């Protein structure tokens, strides 16, 4: 996948791109990341990228010209893209392998399903917003999606772009050593796809939060690992993990329980957990 990051802080990405999975994916050619300094696409002495908002109000707005010029250089403006690869509307309908994404607090909220969709692309352009906002013509005519990484306001889109890059890269086949591990973690639906080949792969989270993990030592300063994990009974381990995932999800993200297709077994486990909770409350 080719990724283009459009930003006024190109240095910002030095850290995120240079460690772990992202670094390895870049080195092995799975992702080709290019960072573009928006100020290189200005024409005045001060390399101005922002201006005051029409209609008045607080703060500054990122100007459209440098962003359009940068995307022109990348061959990703609507006119070029329409001729060669389809309109932004087509891209938005998922009928293109390319996407121009504007990072903003007003965007569709990123989740694992959107990350999986983006991981299918051949090319992704991430435009990092700044200041009070970005001239709306960028969202209207240049980007085919607007994405937010969560319901809070960042001071800019750079952190959001780094997050998207991270979650998408680790879903590209070959980026993470053990592919099964990305399929059974939190928020990944489809436990049934995972198969049934031992404890490490029998417990797909299926839209729940991931189950707890432990490693050696089994006894660390008197804090012991749950006995069931040390005993090696695969069926018991599977059940313990499912129960723990349900328990953690109920505690931290009860909204996910409602959105998850639960099996008969799950309902029994939930009833058990509820029962234990009410005993603890007494
Ligand atoms: N820019 C400001 N807030 C943001 C958010 N929550 N996600 C992505 N970009 C942003």
In short:
It contains 13 helices and ten strands. By secondary structure, it is an alpha/beta fold.
Structural notes for this entry:
The protein is of the alpha/beta class. Helix content is 40%, strand content 16%. It contains 13 helices and ten strands. It has helices spanning 14-17, 20-27, 64-73, 78-85, 88-92, 112-118, 136-141, 158-169, 179-183, 227-231, 234-252, 254-258, 264-281, and strands at 2-7, 32-37, 50-51, 61-62, 98-109, 123-128, 133-134, 145-148, 219-220, 223-224. The strands form three sheets. Strands 2-1-6-5-8 form a five-stranded parallel sheet. A three-stranded mixed sheet has the order 3-4-7. Strands 9-10 form a two-stranded antiparallel ribbon. Mean pLDDT is 89; it is low at 191-205.
Poorly predicted regions are 191-205
Q: Please give the radius of gyration in angstroms.
A: 23 Å
**List of distinct ligands in this structure:** adenine
What's the count of strands? 10
Largest sheet: 5 strands, parallel
Question: What is the general shape?
Answer: elongated
Task: State the helical fraction.
Answer: 25-40%
* Overall pLDDT: 89
The ordered string of helix (H) and strand (E) elements is: EHHEEEHHHEHEEHEHHEEHHHH
Distance between the termini: 55 Å
Which structural class best describes the helix and strand composition? Answer: alpha/beta
The share of residues in extended strands comes to: 15-25%
- Please state how the strands of the largest beta sheet are arranged side by side: 2-1-6-5-8
Tally of separate helices? 13
């Amino acid at each position: 996948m080719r990724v283009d990051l459009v930003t006024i802080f190109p240095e910002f990405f030095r850290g995120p791109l240079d460690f772990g999975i992202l670094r390895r994916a870049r080195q092995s050619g799975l992702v080709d990341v290019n960072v573009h300094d928006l100020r290189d696409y200005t024409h005045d002495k001060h390399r101005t990228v922002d201006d005051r908002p029409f209609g008045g109000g607080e703060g500054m707005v990122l100007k459209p010209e440098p962003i359009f010029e940068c995307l022109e250089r990348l061959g990703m403006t609507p006119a070029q893209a329409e001729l060669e690869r389809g309109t932004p509307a087509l891209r938005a309908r998922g009928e293109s392998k390319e996407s121009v994404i504007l990072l903003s607090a007003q965007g569709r909220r990123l989740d694992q399903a959107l990350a999986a969709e983006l991981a299918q692309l051949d090319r992704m352009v991430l435009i990092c917003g700044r200041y009070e906002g970005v001239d709306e013509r960028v969202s209207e005519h240049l980007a085919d999606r607007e994405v937010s990484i969560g319901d809070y306001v960042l001071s800019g889109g750079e952190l959001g772009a780094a997050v998207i890059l991270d979650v998408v890269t680790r879903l590209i086949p070959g980026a993470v050593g053990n592919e099964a591990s990305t399929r059974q973690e939190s928020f990944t639906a489809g436990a049934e796809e995972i198969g049934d080949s031992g404890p490490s792969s029998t417990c797909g989270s299926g839209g729940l939060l991931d189950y707890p993990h432990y490693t050696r030592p089994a006894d660390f300063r008197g804090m012991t690992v749950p006995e069931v994990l040390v005993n090696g009974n695969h069926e018991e381990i599977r059940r313990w993990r499912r129960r723990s995932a349900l328990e953690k999800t109920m505690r931290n993200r009860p909204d996910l329980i409602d959105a998850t297709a639960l099996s008969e077994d799950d309902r029994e486990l939930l009833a058990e957990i509820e029962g234990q909770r009410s005993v603890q409350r007494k």
